[in-house]
Design goal:
The protein is mostly beta strands. The chain is built from one helix and twelve strands. 12% of the residues lie in helices and 48% in strands. A twelve-stranded antiparallel barrel has the order 1-2-3-4-5-6-7-8-9-10-11-12. It is globular, with a radius of gyration of 14 Å.
Length: 157
């Protein structure tokens, strides 16, 4: 399954629309005023289903993931020189990105592909394509993408 992740052009806080390949809305994401990024994911019916929350005062960026109010794990950036690498402490997943930090691959503990994330260039707002191997991991891949985008936003400020 492919999802198209588009940041809204005019918004005070982080706001995103996530679309299926056919153009239908899959999820909406609304940022909340807080210390660090706090992003609330809603399904196509407007029901809150997940949260991505930045942990502040960390040497390396770290984000917590919650699904239906239950903590499921966190994403921690690893220090590396020529690539972006993250450890996701749920499901044994690992994520690595190219040296620009625009393209990422998420793999399970055995090295099998879970998802790829690619940043689309030449758009007015941040736009990513999330391609998942299985439909049931789409929400988790979206949460990873939100955390990456929030980290990049924090770096640019």
């Amino acid at each position: 399954m492919k999802l198209l992740f588009k940041q809204r052009f005019f918004s005070w806080f982080d706001s995103y629309d996530i679309y299926y390949e056919n153009g239908a809305v899959a999820y909406t994401v609304e940022g909340q005023l807080s210390w660090g990024h706090e992003l609330h994911i809603k399904d196509s019916n407007g029901v809150h289903i997940a949260t991505v929350k930045e942990k502040i005062f960390r040497l390396m960026p770290e984000f917590e993931f919650y699904v239906r109010g239950r903590f499921i794990g966190c994403q921690k950036k690893r220090f590396q020189f020529f690539e972006h690498s993250y450890y996701l402490d749920f499901n044994g997943w690992q994520a690595t990105g190219n040296w620009l930090g625009w393209d990422y691959a998420i793999k399970d503990g055995n090295g099998a592909p879970i998802a790829t994330i690619s940043k689309q260039l030449w758009n007015w707002t941040d736009t990513y394509v999330i391609d998942t191997a299985r439909d049931e991991v789409a929400l988790l891949a979206l949460m990873f993408t939100l955390a990456i985008d929030a980290e990049k936003c924090s770096q640019s400020k």
